[in-house]
Amino acid sequence: MAVLKMTAAEVARKVIENNELFILDVRNKDAYEDWKIEGHSFDYLNIPYFDLLDGVDEILPKIPTHKDVLVVCAKEGSSLMVAEMLSEAGRDVFFLEGGMKSWSMYLEPIKIGDLTGGGELYQFVRLGKGCLSYMVISEGEAAIIDAVRFTDVFINFANQKNVAIKHVFDTHLHADHISGGRLIAEATGATYYLPPKDAEEVVFNYTPLEDGLTVKIGASQIEVGALYSPGHTIGSTSFIVDSQYLLTGDILFIDSIGRPDLAGLAEDWVSDLRDTLYRRYRDLAEDLIVLPAHFMILEELNDDGTVAKRLGDLLVENHGLNIESEEAFRHTVTDNLPPQPNAYELIRQVNMGKITPDNDEQTEMEIGPNRCAVR
Amino acid sequence: MKVDQVLDAKGLACPMPIVRTKKAMDTLQVGQILEVQATDKGSLADLTAWAAAAGHNLLEHKHEADLFTFYIKKLEK
Q: CA nearest B20 in A: which residue?
């Protein structure tokens, strides 16, 4: 029977469209338990490839015949080997092209909505890692917020849309993934902005992202305005786009809030986080649509694959916005934090320009979930 | 340590280091030791887990620059 290839893009469509898929993950148990492909309607079996070297007969009864079967490993090689063994045993199976490595890298651009005067706002969903990046487009110009390191995706998308990238922002110095912001700006001549309080150690030139800064995209003047909103980091800054959208970075997510410890200063920043979530955001219009820089669980995705929700709804529904006592809030965001993201200290150094790892090393650093939130 | 056989798996990508290691182990006598040289970064976690599952004794492993070296003793199954 046939061995077929499935791309990360095809898997992403299955996640978003809620299709069924049976995943045979042949990585070792630790890697699987740490991080896997999440789907609402996916079923899983984890058997390391090295337990299947003598044959796949023992697992055949566990592999369904009535739905697509996808064999997954870290890079591809082992999944192809196991897929071929299953094929020889008479099964039609897929293997994941490029393995978890390509899953971690894949970005799905999804339109969030229209802006005043024919502009558009796109969210780039990195399903494998839970990172969300944004592009604001208006009248031949574009701004990018929180770009991940796959700079080609953004530059090619801007080319397709026939827009020039003028402004590139990072809401904060990221610790879970490597930013593509600086390189996109270098490649396109755009201005690269970072919050100065997060950028004290960076070794490149940047434009300070100060509270109240506004830039206009295109002639019809869609406004992207900066709102200082510390807490995840001391420099964390949100954006209000076209008076409709609130880009919260890693401060507020759909079903969780930012953690204050990834730069090592949880105790110091708790009150900043509290102030941002319980005062600064509450002063904003409740009809703003919140667009975070991450999602942690699939339940945070809307039916169309976007991650977006009205601020007024989050003020009611998000547990992290409804902790009355400051003391309880402090406990929530400093005690029992989830494990820190893989290589987060190294990733911060890359984002400061202090080290320049090659592509494989960058991939290795970004393995695993983002873990930027507390619930 | 007396090594009975050396397997050069340098430059091979997953799953080949383990496939070759298994084949080499099948040719050894109980009590003999195989040295495996590999450069695949995944080989550390995978060889460790495989040796445990297959009932072999991973005596020692070294990691210098890009090279991983493993010493595996064949045990009676």
A: A53
Task: For residue A228, give the CATH number of its domain.
Answer: 3.60.15.10
Asked if the Cβ–Cβ distance from A364 to B41 is below 8 Å, we say yes
Residue-wise pLDDT for A251-275, tens only, equals 999 999 998 887 777 778 899 999 9
Distance CA A116, CA A28 (A): 50
Using the Cβ of B11 and the Cβ atoms of chain A, whether some distance falls under 8 Å is answered with no
Domain holding A53, by residue range, is: 3-103
Same domain, A234 and A368: yes
Q: What is the CATH number of domain B5-73?
A: 3.30.110.40
Check: CB of residue A48 under 8 Å from CB of residue A36.
no
Task: Count how many domains chain A has.
Answer: 2
Catalytic one among B3, B6, B14, B49? B14
Backbone angles phi, psi at A198, to 5 degrees: -90, -10
- Residues in chain A within 8 Å Cβ distance of B70: none
Whole-model pTM? 0.88
CA A201/CA B48 separation, integer angstroms = 39
Reported ipTM: the value is 0.90
Catalytic annotation present for B14: yes
> Which CATH number is A57's domain given?
3.40.250.10
Domain boundaries, chain B: 5-73
Instruction: Using an 8 Å CB-CB cutoff, list chain A residues near B18.
Output: 49-50, 53
| Type of residue at A235 | G
